[in-house]
Design brief:
The protein has one domain. Helices cover 17% and strands 23% of the residues. The protein has a five-stranded mixed β-sheet with strand order 4-3-2-1-5. The radius of gyration is 16 Å and the shape is globular. The relative contact order is 0.19.
C-alpha cells in the first residue's frame, strides 16, 4: 500500500489520455496539461477514453513510478468537473474511492465543523 506524505497533492487529468503512453509520455503530459513538476512527488492520474483504464504517475525514492489499473467490468466514475478544467485536485479518500469503483459524482460529504476565525488569527 502506498503511503502518501501530507504534502503530497493528487491531480486528476480529466481529458482522456492515450493509455499506450509510458513514463516519458506521461511525464510530458504532466508538464503540458498540469503545468506541474513531475518530480515533485505529487500523484498525477490519467484515464483512457473509455474510462476502463487508469494510470498514476509519481516520483518516489529516486525514480518515477507508474501504477496501472484496468477494470474488467464497468468504468471509473469521475467527480463532476467544470468544462475546460485541465486538472482537478483530489483528496486521498477520493483516490481510494475512485480505485475502489465508487462513483465520485454521486458521493456526498457532510459539512465538517470549522471554528470561526477571529480577525487577529489571520496569518
Amino acid at each position: 500500500m502506498l503511503m502518501l506524505p501530507s504534502s503530497c497533492r493528487i491531480y486528476l487529468c480529466p481529458q482522456p489520455c492515450d493509455m499506450r503512453r509510458g513514463y516519458d509520455g506521461l511525464y510530458a503530459e504532466v508538464k503540458r496539461r498540469c503545468q506541474e513538476d513531475p518530480l515533485s512527488g505529487h500523484l498525477f492520474i490519467f484515464l483512457g477514453a473509455t474510462r476502463t483504464r487508469l494510470k498514476i504517475l509519481f516520483w518516489s525514492d529516486g525514480g518515477l513510478c507508474l501504477y496501472c489499473k484496468r477494470l474488467e467490468k464497468g468504468r471509473f466514475k469521475l467527480p463532476k468537473i467544470e468544462p475546460g478544467r485541465t486538472t482537478v485536485r483530489l483528496a486521498a479518500v477520493d483516490l481510494a474511492m475512485l480505485l475502489s469503483g465508487i462513483d465520485l459524482g454521486s458521493a456526498r460529504r457532510q459539512k465538517l465543523y470549522e471554528p470561526a476565525r477571529s480577525v487577529t488569527d489571520r496569518s
